[in-house]
Amino acid sequence: MEMGNTTPSHNNAVILMHCPDQPGIIAVITEFINTNGGNILYLDQYVDRVNGIFYMRVEWDLEKFIIPKEKINDYFFTLYAQRYNMVYRLSFTDRPQRMALFVSKMSHCLYDILARYTAGDWEVEIPLIVSNHPDLAHVGEQFGIPFEVIPVNRDNKAEMEAREFELLERYGIDFIVLARYMQVLSEEFINRYPNRIINIHHSFLPAFVGAKPYHAAYERGVKLIGATSHYVTTELDAGPIIEQDIVRITHKDTVANLVHKGRDLEKIVLSRAVEKHIQRKILTYKNKTIVFS
Amino acid sequence: MEMGNTTPSHNNAVILMHCPDQPGIIAVITEFINTNGGNILYLDQYVDRVNGIFYMRVEWDLEKFIIPKEKINDYFFTLYAQRYNMVYRLSFTDRPQRMALFVSKMSHCLYDILARYTAGDWEVEIPLIVSNHPDLAHVGEQFGIPFEVIPVNRDNKAEMEAREFELLERYGIDFIVLARYMQVLSEEFINRYPNRIINIHHSFLPAFVGAKPYHAAYERGVKLIGATSHYVTTELDAGPIIEQDIVRITHKDTVANLVHKGRDLEKIVLSRAVEKHIQRKILTYKNKTIVFS
Amino acid sequence: MEMGNTTPSHNNAVILMHCPDQPGIIAVITEFINTNGGNILYLDQYVDRVNGIFYMRVEWDLEKFIIPKEKINDYFFTLYAQRYNMVYRLSFTDRPQRMALFVSKMSHCLYDILARYTAGDWEVEIPLIVSNHPDLAHVGEQFGIPFEVIPVNRDNKAEMEAREFELLERYGIDFIVLARYMQVLSEEFINRYPNRIINIHHSFLPAFVGAKPYHAAYERGVKLIGATSHYVTTELDAGPIIEQDIVRITHKDTVANLVHKGRDLEKIVLSRAVEKHIQRKILTYKNKTIVFS
Amino acid sequence: MEMGNTTPSHNNAVILMHCPDQPGIIAVITEFINTNGGNILYLDQYVDRVNGIFYMRVEWDLEKFIIPKEKINDYFFTLYAQRYNMVYRLSFTDRPQRMALFVSKMSHCLYDILARYTAGDWEVEIPLIVSNHPDLAHVGEQFGIPFEVIPVNRDNKAEMEAREFELLERYGIDFIVLARYMQVLSEEFINRYPNRIINIHHSFLPAFVGAKPYHAAYERGVKLIGATSHYVTTELDAGPIIEQDIVRITHKDTVANLVHKGRDLEKIVLSRAVEKHIQRKILTYKNKTIVFS
Prior knowledge:
Helix content of chain A: 25-40%
Oligomer: homotetramer
Radius of gyration of chain A: 21 Å
Number of helices of chain A: 8
Largest sheet of chain A: 7 strands, mixed
Shape of chain A: globular
Largest interface: A-B, 32 and 32 residues
Strand order of the largest sheet of chain A: 7-6-5-8-9-10-11
């Protein structure tokens, strides 16, 4: 069985950038692309006028672009990035990104992601699942994806994470999705993958940070429960928020019901965030995200 | 101009109650009403099986009810409330409740409530608006409702609240709605009106308790903003939640936009809560609400 | 690998009923259960005062119920159903219902249902998947569920449906879920399973009945797209609606985007409906549903 | 009492435009503004790649713009509009647009709009309310706005509309909001104000076109009701949709409840559409809207 969307990808370049705002930036960049034979397929920009920051995402077809792919970065850096004090990321769509899934015992987010992957909805490769428990090994088997059990806990974290780093290296992983993974990563781990670890937290952050948010929501008597996907930073549940959503509950809902109702929320909110990341549509700045449409 | 829904109200009795759960409670109460000639118009009940509590709201037509209205409470207390350890509230719909509005400088919640009132949507009387500022006096004038300016602040709170108590007394006020009233009430005030002061807080509680929640939401980079209506208790923004809702925002929204978008949320969420209170459909238990449909 | 929730189910009785409204029905039925030793676990009722119909769902534990399970129906019919002109359905929770999935080429609803099933979220058995195409046979294999290809089309419908009837019989199927099954069932088929075939239609019915609703939504320029799950009746897309939901779109969304965004909606809306059906919480009356909470 | 936001408006120019897509359009237009001393405050664009159309909204500060305000149109037309086959609208923000409200007997949309207006939320003038009934005359009085009763019906439509045209002329009306106005406008009327008459229809269009949509929704047994604001065209309820939203209902809701719940939906959906129109953020193309954020 052939997994994922492995059709030869389009040969596009994507630039995600931000810089101090000043007149004419869009004009010069679009002209750079147009005059060199690039066909702009997507352009979205946004000016944060409060802080004076210009943000842009531009994607263009490289087929008739006269600057060789391997030199685009040089040209762009020399001509524009320096001049405008840009922070930018250039990437190409001809190679799907490689994503690792970290899971524990709950399967709903894992299945949701693998169902999309198998159906070819996402331009991504998923060569690796890591878990601190063996419980979901059968899912790896069902989808033909290596499932590595690394029984990490508080006491053996450094040693176990060393094994994880080795795996992530070996499988050429670009980014990591914590699909209801119930272990806190070390600072070292987090710093290795800045803005490249996506977590799903089962509350409407910043409400109910930390463990057992559904219990806390039940105790407080809220009328809506939420889920939040965010990039992982070294402060717990405090990284840049990518996506949030909520579902209505009533006084009739027990904690067990909240857990049950929350599952659909968690999987959808996580998958929306992962999709935006795969599409290279997320910029982060000062612990917030700009998510292009 | 005649304000509010002053058509002769229906002559119904409403009981809101809770007690330790045990078999047969619905049967005995419905039988009590039926055999005495009452026509049940509404019955909703709910059993909290986690804590073993039975909650019920029942409303019946008194027209052919053979127990005189003024004796219903005696009968009910003697026959059922004692026997089942009930906490209950009996009320009658032939007299509209009287509601006071407390406001400061923002008019959106005030107008929303008065528009419903004027249209006759609610069985309520609004004989009084109180404000700590004169800014919205013209709204009182527009709708022909006494608008009393009581310039309360931290230093004169006891004295000013004494004037408020006098007003509330004089106008026969049953419950109070804080329609974006920007003053904290004293404990004494709150304890005079238990479960009878409804506030609107402009965040998805318990996120962003206290002042300037839109600024806090902007800083945190959330993707949804919320509003929460709740009964006021002596702990700030921590009373029983009646209703919450959210609206989606994006990275493009400044604090000013959040304030702007939040207004519609605040007014709708507050009015939904006030409506449920007017309809006597809210029970509170252990800092939570049971809101009947 | 053991699939589904096959733990010995609870030994409860469930009655779903409606009848002309009259005083005392709740009392007599709850008394019937209580005095015979049944412990009521769930009771919800609703009176349609416009049409004068009383609806109820009651579930009770049979453990200490003194009427033998096989005689409950007799007793209930004789004592109450006749007397109150009830239409009712009595069922027992000790045997999970058996559900067949009908699919075509799209996998998102299928995976969503099987993920819940595998995780043990639902008290149901799924012994059979039927498809008019072989494309999703690998999913049956992944989950160890027989996948029968019945290449039905307009010309061979009677013959192919005969084979389907035989399969449904052989596997002891109680109800059928059309998980994006792209074939219209015959009247004969539909009449065999009244209120027991659940479909998902990819629009906010009654808007965009029939084929290609996303194209129609795009053409009309709507700002929200919807999905609707309903029981199948002989009139296309016109059966009793069980659940609906929507998602916001913008002018930027192409038809392909609508199809993509709609998938999450379809799978969630279908699964919510299936869950309510499994829980025996749906009553139908005059082409509408009463869905208990 | 001073009504509306009459502070001296900002001195900006706004261009809304669409044209066949081709490379370089953003660059030339932003350069035109920048090199002539304009400070771009807002730029949003969108390419419909299916149909090959480029859409843009750009707003810039005229303070240091060296082309005189009255010549901007000439320059823009000569230099760009002709060359790129643009359809465009140039407007200036120093003069608030003038809006007329048409109402019948229901006040909720009217109050909602006037509350925003009085609070200064919108840069607009509302010098005129027209109604086919006298019922809401007191609202005009409350807000100090001329309220003209024009008792139009099927038989006197031409004559009455002539009076309306005269009023619209006399008050210098730019656009019209039908705030639950229960009369169909003539073709002549509609053609006088293309894309300048905003209606609110109390259903999720295209479901339940025409009269009594809540009754139809009740009959069909939907689980959500909606509201739709759209520009009025000569085909009933079929004009370009600006905004839609929904609210969840249940089997418990009678038609009266739907009407009641729908009111909040109607007023919010209408006001959102009116706000976008006031902000000049709506483009129409082939019976659809592009609504900029």
